[in-house]
Design a protein that fits this description.
The chain is an alpha/beta fold. It is built from 18 helices and 21 strands. The chain has helices at about 15, 35-45, 80-90, 110-120, 160-180, 195-205, 235-250, 250-265, 285, 295-305, 335-340, 340-345, 345-360, 365, 470-490, 505-520, 525-530, 535-545, and strands at about 10, 50-55, 55-60, 65-70, 95-100, 105, 145-150, 150-155, 185, 210-215, 235, 275, 305-310, 370-375, 380-385, 390-395, 400-405, 415, 420-425, 430-435, 440-445. Helix 5 (about 160-180) packs parallel to helix 6 (about 195-205), helix 7 (about 235-250) packs antiparallel against helix 8 and helix 16 runs parallel beside helix 18. Residues about 465-495 have low confidence and may be disordered.
C-alpha cells in the first residue's frame, strides 16, 4: 500500500488562482506562490491529503510552453518560495505532485533558441521532431517542426533522442532534490512515447519511495499506460464524462456501464485519477442541468474505485464555462479571505469536506472490491467490500425520494454517515430511503465511531441556484453565456454554426463526414478523431480538408 492508494487530491492551477499576468515578461519576480500558503489549511480541512499543482516552471504564458524546467515561473516567485511551499504542505500531511510538461517546450527554451540561432550547426537540432530547414512557419523561423495540437508555440521534443531523455530524467531528479516533490502528473501522456515513459518510471522508482507518476490520458485502454513498467495512474476522462451526462440524461446505465468497463480493464489494480472538472473542462456546477445533482455526482466520485480529486473552487460550487478562444474562466483568481469560512457557511463545501474525511476514515472505500447492487435509470447502488465488511452507496437522480432494498446481513445495522440515519436489516435485506437528487453512504454501525459525527451534513440543504460566494466575474460571464445559448437555440435552424462555434462532438462528426467524402474511414481513423477532444485542434483539423 502506497500513500497514493489512500489519497484525496486537491488540484490547483497556480497562475490562475494567484491572478498572475497572462504573459511573462521575464523581468520582475512576484512572490505570488506565497499567497497560496493559507490555502494549505483549507485543503486539509476539506479532507484532502494530496495536492496536484501546476504548471509551475518558467514559461511564456499559460504555463505549458516551458522555457526553464529548473526555475519557478517568476510570476509566481523563486525556487525558495516553491521549496518552502512544499515543505509547508508536508508539515500538514499533504503530499505534492507537479505538472511535468515533457512532451513539448516553448520556443524560448534554450535548445530551441539554439536551433534558431545556429540552424543546421546547432547541436540541439535533433532535440525536436522533424526539424526541416527547407520549411517555414508563421514565426518565419526559416524552418518547420512538429508541434502539439497544431500549435507551433509548443515544439514537440524528440523523445527517441537519448540526450532528451537524459535531460528530462535529470529534471525529475532535480525536482526531488530541490523541492522534495512526491510525484508528477505527465502532461499529454497519451502522445508520449512508451519507451520514454518507461525511462521516466525507472527514475521514479529510484528517486523516492512511492514516487507517483500519473498521466493525462483522454480515452483508450488505460492499462496500456497503467502497469508495473510505465505509469501508476492516468486521468479517468471516461468516468468524468459519464458522471455528468449520466445525471443530465437521468441515465445511471451509462455510469454503471463505464464502471464495469473500467473494472474489466484492470479491476482494483487500476487506480485511476477520478475528477469531475479540471483546468481544461467546464466546472461541474456549470455542466449540470439540475444543480442539486452536485450531491450524487460527488458521492459517486468519492466512493467509486479510483483516486478522487477536487479542482480548486469547485468545492464552493462556482461556475466556469469554457470560452471559444480562452480557458481563463476555468482558471479564475480566488481570494482566500472570501472563502476561508466556506466549510461552515457553504453547503457545497460542507459536503466535500464530509466526503473527504469519510474517504480518509474508510479504507474499505480505498481498497474494497466493487459490486453493483441496484441499477435503474434514476437509482444506482453498489457495495465496496473488504475483509468481510461492506459499505453500501446509494444515489438517486430523480425528483422524488426512492426506497431501495439492499442485501445485508440479517439484523445488521447500518448508519448513513452523511445524515446520521440508522437502519437495521431485516430478513437479510436493508430497506433504505434515498432522498430526491441526493445519495447516502451506509456504513456498518460497529465500525462507526464518534468521529463520524463531525462529517455529517444536511445535504438536502443544497439549493438549485448559483452559490452566492461565486466570483462576480464568473457569474456575469455565465449569465451572458446562457443568453447566448438561448439565442443559438432560437436561431440554429436558420444560421449555420461556424467551426469555432461548434461543440467538440459536432467538430468530430464534421471531420468524419469530410473523411467519408474522401474515401473509406477505417476504425483507426475514427478512433483518432474521437480521441481528440481539444476544440482548437479539431477546428484546425476540420479546416485542413479541401
Amino acid at each position: 500500500m502506497a500513500w497514493y492508494d489512500e489519497a484525496v487530491f486537491y488540484h490547483i492551477y497556480p497562475l490562475g488562482l494567484t491572478g498572475a499576468p497572462k504573459q511573462n515578461t521575464y523581468q520582475e519576480v512576484e512572490h505570488r506562490l506565497n499567497t497560496l500558503i493559507p490555502w494549505i489549511d483549507h485543503i486539509k480541512n476539506i479532507g484532502c491529503n494530496a495536492l496536484y499543482i501546476g504548471p509551475l516552471f518558467e514559461s511564456v504564458g499559460h504555463g505549458y510552453e516551458t522555457t526553464d524546467y529548473k526555475k519557478l515561473d517568476c510570476r509566481l516567485g523563486t525556487n525558495e518560495d516553491l521549496k518552502n511551499f512544499v515543505s509547508e504542505c508536508h508539515k500538514a500531511g499533504i503530499k505534492v505532485i507537479f505538472d511535468g510538461v515533457f512532451n513539448h517546450t516553448g520556443r524560448d527554451f534554450f535548445a530551441f533558441k539554439d536551433i534558431k540561432e545556429k540552424r543546421e550547426a546547432s547541436s540541439y537540432k535533433d532535440w525536436y521532431c522533424n526539424v526541416n530547414f527547407y520549411g517555414n512557419n508563421e514565426y518565419n523561423d526559416g524552418f518547420s517542426y512538429d508541434n502539439w495540437g497544431g500549435y507551433n508555440l509548443l515544439a514537440k521534443l524528440n523523445q527517441h533522442n537519448p540526450a532528451v531523455r537524459d535531460y528530462i530524467c535529470d529534471v525529475i531528479r532535480f525536482w526531488v532534490k530541490e523541492f522534495d516533490v512526491d510525484g508528477i502528473r505527465l502532461d499529454a501522456a497519451d502522445v508520449l512515447d512508451f519507451n520514454y515513459m518507461q525511462a521516466l518510471r525507472q527514475v521514479a522508482n529510484e528517486v523516492k519511495p512511492d514516487f507517483w507518476l500519473m498521466g493525462e490520458v483522454i480515452h483508450g485502454d488505460y492499462t496500456r499506460w497503467v502497469n508495473e513498467g510505465t505509469l501508476h495512474s492516468v486521468t479517468n476522462y471516461t468516468l468524468h464524462k459519464a458522471l455528468y451526462s449520466g445525471h443530465n440524461d437521468h441515465n445511471y446505465f451509462e455510469i454503471a456501464h463505464t464502471v464495469k468497463r473500467l473494472q474489466d480493464m484492470g479491476g482494483n489494480k487500476l487506480k485511476l485519477y477520478n475528477f469531475v472538472d479540471n483546468h481544461d473542462v467546464e466546472r461541474i456546477y456549470t455542466k449540470l442541468n439540475n444543480k442539486k445533482h452536485f450531491v450524487p455526482v460527488h458521492i459517486l466520485m468519492y466512493t467509486l474505485p479510483g483516486v478522487p480529486s477536487i479542482y480548486y473552487g469547485s468545492e464552493f460550487g462556482i461556475e466556469g464555462r469554457k470560452e471559444r478562444f480562452s480557458d481563463d474562466s476555468l482558471r479564475p483568481a480566488l481570494s482566500y479571505d472570501e472563502y476561508k469560512d466556506a466549510i461552515d457557511t457553504n453547503e457545497y463545501t460542507k459536503l466535500i469536506a464530509a466526503l473527504g474525511k469519510l474517504r480518509q476514515k474508510l479504507d474499505i472505500v480505498s481498497y474494497g472490491d466493487f459490486k453493483e447492487l441496484v441499477l435503474t435509470n434514476c437509482q444506482y447502488a453498489f457495495s465496496r467490500n473488504l475483509n468481510g465488511k461492506s459499505v453500501l452507496v446509494t444515489v438517486n437522480n430523480a425528483d422524488n425520494d426512492a426506497n431501495l432494498s439492499l442485501p445485508a446481513g440479517n439484523g445488521a445495522e447500518y448508519v448513513g454517515v452523511l445524515s446520521g440515519v440508522k437502519v437495521k436489516a431485516n430478513g437479510g435485506m436493508l430497506l433504505v430511503n434515498v432522498n430526491a437528487n441526493s445519495g447516502e453512504i451506509w456504513v456498518p454501525s460497529d465500525i462507526v465511531d464518534e468521529g463520524y459525527k463531525h462529517i455529517q451534513v444536511e445535504i438536502s440543504e443544497i439549493k438549485d441556484t448559483v452559490v452566492e460566494n461565486a466570483t462576480k466575474e464568473v457569474s456575469v460571464e455565465t449569465t451572458r453565456e446562457k443568453v447566448v445559448d438561448k439565442v443559438d437555440v432560437a436561431t440554429k435552424t436558420t444560421t449555420p454554426k461556424t467551426y469555432e462555434e461548434m461543440t467538440i462532438e459536432e467538430l468530430q462528426e464534421a471531420i468524419l463526414e469530410k473523411m467519408r467524402k474522401n474515401g473509406p474511414v477505417t476504425d483507426q481513423m475514427k478512433k483518432d478523431v474521437m480521441e481528440n477532444v481539444y476544440h482548437n485542434s479539431l477546428v484546425t483539423w476540420v479546416k485542413s480538408f479541401n
